[in-house]
Design a protein that fits this description.
- This protein is mainly β.
- It has two helices and eight strands; from the N terminus they run E-E-H-E-E-E-E-H-E-E.
- Helix 1 packs antiparallel against helix 2.
- It starts with a strand and ends in a 24-residue tail after the last strand.
Length: 122
């Protein structure tokens, strides 16, 4: 699972294996270790919630998506799920996307579980 921030937005990209795990009920978790014993963790999970939720506490970003949304997305052709949440007088834009195969880049970054690209202009 990849995490990207830009302005007031958060994007998670997940490959086929991760989408399958998430759909079956597993929680996806990654963490980054920093010098000085600090860490940032991020989680993506499906739950019985009625709408998407994002929480940040104790160095952990938790993104929770309704079960039916995850299951429909996992079975469908849509690349992403997109939503906005109110955030301290602003809004946080959240994107959860299927990770597409790289067309160029270092060999060590190629993901054999990435989704294939279709069409010429991807």
């Amino acid at each position: 699972m990849k995490l990207r921030f830009r302005s007031n937005s958060l994007r998670l990209r997940v490959n086929r294996r991760e989408v399958e795990s998430l759909s079956s009920g597993s929680v996806l978790r990654e963490q980054v270790q920093f010098p000085g014993d600090a860490q940032l963790a991020y989680l993506l999970e499906k739950s019985a919630v009625s709408s998407p939720q994002v929480d940040f506490a104790q160095g952990t970003i938790r993104v929770t998506i309704p079960s039916d949304c995850i299951e429909n997305w996992a079975r469908g052709d849509e690349i992403g799920m997109y939503f906005e949440l109110p955030a301290n007088g602003s809004s946080l834009k959240v994107a959860i996307e299927k990770d597409l195969a790289c067309v160029d880049g270092p060999v060590e970054e190629l993901d054999p579980d990435a989704y294939p690209r279709s069409g010429k202009n991807c």
